[in-house]
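Figure 2 data, in text form.
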Amino acid sequence: QVRLVESGGGLVQPGGSLRLSCAASGFRFSSFNMRWYRQAPGKERVLVAIINTTGLSTVYAESVKGRFTASRDNAKNTLYLQMNSLKPEDTGVYYCNAASDWGQGTQVTVSS
């Protein structure tokens, strides 16, 4: 069955960096556009980034443009999100998404 497993979250100071990973299995990863979402405490889940099947095209939420970079390795069935210049408002649970399938999420906390 489809499995998406996020990792790489943690506690980081403002201005710091984290790299999230999402290991995919159970489907043809290279055929799917992939998405990163985040859900801040008490708020709805929002789209952060979209990456197309080849990784050559990406779209970002305005709030993360220039700071976050989505990438993928289709040979490893893995999706990434490089997050730089992190801000407290980036705090939340980050999820990867393929069509209607979701991972369990990884917590990112940006705090001094």
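Caption note: The chain has a mean pLDDT of 97.
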